[in-house]
Fold:
Amino acid sequence: MKTYVSHKGRRTILKGGLAAAVVWMARSAFRPLYAQQKAALITAAPVARVPTDPDDPAWSRAMAALVALQPQNLVVPGIDEAGAKQINVRALYDADRLALLLEWNDAHKDADLGTVLQYRDAVAVQLPENPALGPTSYMMGQRGRGVIIYHWKSDWQFGQLHDVDEANPNMYNDWYPYSGVEAGKVPEASDYLTKGSKEYLTAAAVGNALADPLAQKQLGPVQKMRAEGFGTIEPHPTQDGAGYGVWRDGSWRIVIAIPRRQDNYTLGEGTTVPVAFAVWDGSRNERNGQKAISQWKDLGLGLPIPEASPVVPPAPTQAGGSILGPVLGGIGGAIAAALAVLIGVRMRRPRSGDTERQA
Structure:
């Protein structure tokens, strides 16, 4: 009489051991991936006073974070491909202010808007208006959960006095009687505001800083704004941002400095806040919603927070196990894993006595 004995239980155990061995051997491969995912965290380093010069040596104290950018193509006007693909971010802070150094490649410096067919290079930093209200969209916020935007504009720093006569130096000069400038000279926009009748520079007359070079000079190249979604952006009533940019060798280096104390919260040491970025490439006719954007990235002030790097819990120790633990965790562990694989392969081979036995 023949009886059949099932070895499914033993094979299940061996398969489980084999899977565990594979996971053990692969764990070292997953650690770098985990570290890369956490490497996007932007950590601000403390300094006595944040620098405003992009070339200040103090920036070497800040760890660089590379942030990926994507074209804004969800709403009109959008683009299929953006000029900027990534932006390098460093952060420093002092007792009052947080400063960000933003670097990205751009082959053309677009800062002089002498004609209506030229567009500026620009970069923006976005923060939630009130993190206590919960997460908000990185695409300029949403209703009831707004965002604060600090927008650096290249023409506000470099091109305030570049007008149509600088773009076309040999143009014919007519007489502009309400500009305050004598006949034969082309007036600047500021002439209407200081010498002539500002009503003939309508946008500036009603307080639009985009058309008022005097307001731009007073504010500086960084304008603070707020938004609660697409099409809702407007100047913030408090202008407290500062910045300065340098273009050299095909890349921009921009400093944007903001107060640590915002209206609804303070960027405290040891805390984190989400930030997002946007870049405009003027040579590609990018303007308004046509831009490169990032998703939210965590920014922390002070030493890197524990979540910034993987933490491997120590193996449990028992009496008499202080030597065995390190051995199994190192070379001995690798040998044990290899043996488990070999045993699993061996046990899968059929044997005449494994499945059939004479009673």
Summary: Confidence is low (pLDDT under 50) at residues 1-8, 18-40, 305-334, 350-359. The chain has two domains: 2-36+325-358, 43-304. The chain is about 25% helix and 25% strand.
